[in-house]
Sequence to fold (135 residues):
Amino acid sequence: MRGKNSVAAMLKKMRLLRGLKQRELAHRTGLQPSAISQFETGHREPSIDNLRKLADALGVSIDFLMGRQALIPSGPQLEKILRHARQMTQEQLEELARFAAFLSNQMKARPRLSAAGALPPPSSRGNGGGHPAKH
Fold:
C-alpha cells in the first residue's frame, strides 16, 4: 500500500484513530479543512511541507503516512518526553509507563464534543471513572 492512495487512506485512518475531525486536524496543521478532505479522498496530494505538518500533528512519521514504515510515534511532543525519560530511573520509567497507559485509556473513554462544542449533559457523561466530581 504505497503512493497516493496510501497517503489518503493512512491520513484518514490516523485522523480517526486520534479522534480528530477534519477541521480539528486542519486547525492543528494550519491548513484548510477542504485541503484535508481533498488529501483524504486522494483528489489532491499533500506537498512535502504539508506532509510534515500532517505527520507532526498526528504524531507519526512522513514515511508512515506514505505506507513505507510501521507506526512509530514521532513528533516534537514525543521528543520532549524522550528527553525527560532519558534522565529517569527505572522506577520513574515504570511510573511514566503506567501514567501513559492511564492517559491512553482516559482518552478512549472521554466523550466527544458535540458539533456545538458542548459536552453531553452530565447525567450521560458519568463523573470520570468513579472519582468524586470536583467543583
About this structure: Confidence is low (pLDDT under 50) at residues 112-135.
